[in-house]
Design goal:
Length: 64
């Protein structure tokens, strides 16, 4: 949920340097995105998993 466009390398640098507080901030932003929906926790988890998968593919090859 970044507000600026980053190159793939910048995205990976950000991803691999994320700390607990960064993950909590990401989850909080996603919770706001899905507020009011019955399945908000599941949607947040799915978005985070998709992000991790996308960054892993970007880092280690494969289709993103």
């Amino acid at each position: 949920y970044g507000s600026s466009i980053q190159s793939p390398q910048q995205q990976l640098t950000t991803f691999f340097s994320m700390e607990s507080a960064d993950w909590e901030e990401l989850a909080a932003k996603l919770q706001l995105r899905y507020r009011g929906q019955d399945n908000a926790p599941e949607l947040v988890r799915a978005d985070i998993q998709e992000y991790v998968t996308r960054m892993s593919r970007l880092a280690y090859g494969g289709r993103a």
